[in-house]
Design goal:
The chain is α+β, with helices and mostly antiparallel strands. It contains 18 helices and 10 strands. Bound molecules: zinc ion. Zinc ion binds at residues 272, 274-275, 277, 302-303, 305-306.
Length: 479
Amino acid sequence: MTLNADERELLRRISEAGSPVEPPDYFHSIHPPDFPRSAADDDPRREAWVELQMGLYRAYIRLHELGLVEVVDPATANGATAWWPPRPAAPHSDRPRPAPSSGDCPVLLSGRQPAASGDLLEAVSVRRPGDNGGTRARAGVMVAGDTGAGRREQQQMGFDWDINFPTTAEIAALHGEALRSWVDTGTEAVAEIVGKPAERVRSRLTRTAGVKNLGAADDEDLRECLRVLRTWLSDPASYTPPAPKPKIQRPESIGQLPVPRTLKQAHTETTCGLCADPVKPGDLVGRMRDPKDKQFVPMGWLCAHCLYERREKPRRRDVVLRIFHHLFASSAAGLNAHECAVLRTWLTETEAPAASTAWRNDPLDTTVVRLETSVTEVKGTTWIAVPTAHTIITALLDAPGSSEAETALLRAVAQHLDEWQTNPQGIEARRYGTGVRYRAEVLKTTSRPTVLSERGGPFDLHHTPPPTAEPGDTADSTA
Ligand SMILES: [Zn+2]
């Protein structure tokens, strides 16, 4: 019989121990990790090391099969001595739970003496694409410890976790009960991995996700819970208390936005629920309070710019988004002096918008003067009615030098403004009326989805109450 190097080394250590042992306790000293704890999940050194650890598990199985190590005590499923911890059934997975078999689930030899001080304390994991498109998180949580009083503080386990937890893209597509079900599954899975009661994991989860009451949480909050759980499952070492909330100085006066309902650091890559910009892990994200006016839809998680700065230091896209959501909810868009300045520059810095067909058919000269007045007088709100706003968007499509994101957004707004006028899907006025509900339905059923139709609305972008009169007679009034 030929033993490979791992099998020989493991057998040597077990035979020298002098009393029953749990062989995986040796794994970290046979192949110590050569990367920092903070190394990324897909760090090649981490991946290579996990492979070495798995090789040792295979060695252990083979020694058992060859009858070279003897089972002293059958394993129980309490996580302390089990090879495979019990796994919660994954919702929406029709794969059967793999039952432990004698081949891949050897019992451990228990009754081992306390681990020597200095045994490696390390949490490791590696993610791989799962068989059916999900994520297969292979995690070995190695936390052997010695209190020095002959009592083992922490236990050790190694296992292959494949609950196919949703990817970030899948999380974005989940709704309602499916989200809740995954929150439960993920919480139990994390509890299993970190060896804490599910209730404690749940409590840390709500604090980390910035969700007060899980029972009343909306889909956006539940999705954030899943993103947090996903991070913890992929890297159990990241199961730490939430970072303290940062103190942010809000702009004052006409650029000010309300205090957000909640703030946190993003756990995974995601996109802003308003401007759709990418958000990196660690970036500040937050949610605004639910709108008081029920015609508005709550916004998802917003980037720091959208939470604090979009009205004080507006980008061109902020102004376009504002026009879109105001026209969605009412018959005019209200801009403050900062936003008017951005729009005026965009319309006049080149000749192209003024030369466009849209401008020639519906001259914007008076509007440009009103924008200038707003800037000079630092006005809180200047109203632009639907037809003028529509012309502005169309004319700006001819402006050279717009970024890709700006052009895409202008196109999307132009498309939806057109669809609200032409009703290409034939939405029934009898059922949806001609107001916000109609526009929401047209947006939802568009045959050409955009970033705007994905996010829905209308969003309450704050501070400019809808005008009382209809467009036409208010086109040139200022509030
Ligand atoms: Zn944003």
